[in-house]
């Protein structure tokens, strides 16, 4: 009986530790998105209306003056971070034709909420667009026990869609 209790205790302690980590590097994510040949990074400066919109979406100022992105044709890729409960979650997002094509947790640092990295959750974002009010055009189901991580990914999805709309890749070429 004592061995069984020890085993159960070890299993319950092991899950969060195993959930933390790097699931994919930013370089590998970009190589996957752009068929092994990512374009040169571009930058969006966070000032004026862009800074205000980003702060409205996140509920706070983004912690940088500029955000790098990669783009070609009507596709952009973003590597963004948002705090879950206490630590940043690094997420790769792809926007194509003004809709979210892919969202992937690249690195998770929290002890709870790691379930947001799985396809059963992230697949809900595929095809999502922004409304005029800068909200997602669909409901995203939460995960019990991962509320703050869910909120973080929803904010980053909205931010990537908004930022994409500010790039030349969001519009048809002349």
Walk me through this protein's architecture.
The chain has 174 residues and is of the alpha+beta class. The chain has five helices and six strands. The protein has helices spanning 2-19, 26-33, 48-58, 119-122, 147-165; strands at 21-22, 42-45, 66-72, 75-83, 88-96, 99-108. Strands 1-6-5-4-3-2 form a six-stranded antiparallel β-sheet, with helices on both faces. Strand 4 (75-83) and strand 5 form a beta hairpin. It starts with a helix and ends in a 9-residue tail after the last helix. Mean pLDDT is 90; it is low at 4-17.
Compute the number of helices. 5
Q: Whole-number average pLDDT?
A: 90
Structural class: alpha+beta
**Secondary-structure element order, as H and E?**
HEHEHEEEEHH
What's the number of extended β-strand segments?
6
Return residue spans where pLDDT drops below 50 for at least 5 consecutive residues: 4-17
Which strand order do you get reading across the main beta sheet?
A: 1-6-5-4-3-2
Largest sheet entry: 6 strands, antiparallel
Percent of residues in helices: 25-40%
Indicate the overall shape.
Answer: globular
Beta-strand residue fraction: 15-25%
- Rg over C-alpha atoms, rounded to the nearest angstrom: 18 Å
Our measurement of the CA-to-CA distance between the termini, rounded to an integer number of angstroms, reads 73 Å
